[in-house]
C-alpha cells in the first residue's frame, strides 16, 4: 500500500492529467479554428471554371461558448482566405440548455455582415433556425429570426431558390434547399398535413436547361441520395462531424434517414459528390472531442482533385 507521500503523488498526477485533458478539450472546443481545405473538380464541373469558396456551418451562437468575439474572429479568418464567394450552411441559432442564452440575432448578424467576397454571401437555414426560433410557427410563410438577421446583414437566404452566377466569363448555378427537418402545416382535403420545408424537385425546376454546373446548399446531408446528376456538388453541415469523436469514432451522429452514414468530409457515390463540414458550434453539450471547429476553403476547378 502506498504511503501518504506516494498517494499524494498519484492523486496529484491524476489531477494534472485530468486538468491537461480538460484544458485540451476546452482549447479544441472554444479557442481553435481549423481551415479545412479541399480541391475538387466534381463531375459536370468544367476544369476551366475555377471557384474559391469559403464554407461555414452550425454557428449555434450562444453565450459564453460562441459569443460575438468568437464570431468576429471566425469572420476575420473567413475574409482572410479571400474567397470568390462565402456560403453559409445553416444553424445560426442555438437551443443548448447549458448556456447563458442565445446571442441576439442583431449581434451575430452584425458580425456576419462584415463578410466580403466578389460573388457575395449566400445562406440556407438549418433545423435549429426553426426549432429554436421563438417567433417561428408552423405556417408555410412563417417568420424567421435567422432569415431576418441574415437579410438585414445583406446576405441572400435561399429556401428552395436558385441563382445563376457569373465569374471570369463562366457561369454556374447556386441552389439552396429549404430545411429538411423544418415543418409547416396546411390543410389537404379538409385535414391538417405536415410538410417539409425542403422541396428538391421545385428547386431543380428553377434551374435552366443549360450547360452551367450546379452547386446545392442543403443543411442536412440526408438529401444526397435523392440529388440528381445535374448537381455537381452538394454542400452540407448539420452533423458537427459527430461532435464527440475520439480517435475518429463518433457514437452519435444526427440523421434523418438512419440507414445513411454521412458524418464528415468528401463523399463520392454513383458519380455524384457530397461535402460535409464539421462546422463551428455545439448541440446538447458544450464540448467537442476529436472534431475541431472549422471553416472550409473549397477550391473548385483546375487539373487536380484532392480530399
Automatic annotation (TrEMBL):
GO process annotations (BP): lipid A biosynthetic process
Record key words, sorted: Hydrolase, Metal-binding, Signal
Signal peptide location: 1-26
GO MF annotations in UniProt: metal ion binding; UDP-2,3-diacylglucosamine hydrolase activity
GO cellular component: membrane
Residues of the Calcineurin-like phosphoesterase domain: 52-241
A Pfam family assignment: Metallophos
Protein name per Swiss-Prot or TrEMBL: Metallophosphoesterase
Lineage: Bacteria, Pseudomonadati, Pseudomonadota, Alphaproteobacteria, Hyphomicrobiales
Amino acid at each position: 500500500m502506498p504511503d501518504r507521500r506516494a498517494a499524494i503523488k498519484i492523486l496529484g498526477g491524476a489531477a494534472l492529467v485530468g486538468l491537461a485533458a480538460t484544458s485540451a478539450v476546452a482549447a479544441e472546443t472554444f479557442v481553435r479554428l481549423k481551415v479545412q481545405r479541399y480541391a475538387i473538380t466534381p463531375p459536370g464541373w468544367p476544369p476551366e471554371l475555377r471557384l474559391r469558396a469559403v464554407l461555414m456551418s452550425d454557428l449555434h451562437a450562444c453565450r459564453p461558448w460562441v459569443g460575438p468575439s468568437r464570431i468576429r474572429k471566425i469572420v476575420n479568418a473567413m475574409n482572410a482566405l479571400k474567397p470568390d464567394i462565402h456560403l453559409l450552411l445553416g444553424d445560426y441559432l442555438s437551443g443548448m440548455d447549458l448556456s447563458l442564452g442565445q446571442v441576439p440575432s442583431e449581434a451575430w448578424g452584425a458580425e456576419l455582415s462584415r463578410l466580403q467576397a466578389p460573388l457575395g454571401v449566400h445562406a440556407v437555414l438549418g433545423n435549429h433556425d426553426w426549432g429554436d426560433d421563438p417567433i417561428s410557427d408552423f405556417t408555410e410563410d412563417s417568420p424567421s429570426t435567422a432569415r431576418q438577421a441574415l437579410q438585414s446583414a445583406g446576405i441572400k437566404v435561399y429556401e428552395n431558390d436558385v441563382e445563376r452566377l457569373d465569374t471570369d466569363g463562366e457561369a454556374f448555378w447556386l441552389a439552396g434547399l429549404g430545411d429538411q427537418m423544418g415543418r409547416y402545416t396546411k390543410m389537404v382535403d379538409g385535414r391538417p398535413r405536415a410538410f417539409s420545408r425542403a422541396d428538391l424537385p421545385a428547386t431543380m425546376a428553377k434551374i435552366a436547361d443549360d450547360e452551367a454546373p450546379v452547386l446545392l446548399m442543403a443543411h442536412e446531408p440526408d438529401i444526397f441520395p435523392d440529388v440528381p446528376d445535374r448537381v455537381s456538388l452538394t454542400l452540407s453541415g448539420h452533423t458537427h462531424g459527430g461532435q464527440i469523436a475520439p480517435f475518429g469514432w463518433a457514437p452519435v451522429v444526427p440523421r434523418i434517414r438512419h440507414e445513411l452514414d454521412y458524418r464528415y468530409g468528401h463523399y463520392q457515390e454513383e458519380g455524384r459528390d457530397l461535402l460535409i463540414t464539421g462546422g463551428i458550434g455545439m448541440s446538447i453539450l458544450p464540448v467537442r472531442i476529436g472534431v475541431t471547429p472549422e471553416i472550409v476553403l473549397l477550391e473548385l476547378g483546375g487539373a487536380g482533385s484532392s480530399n
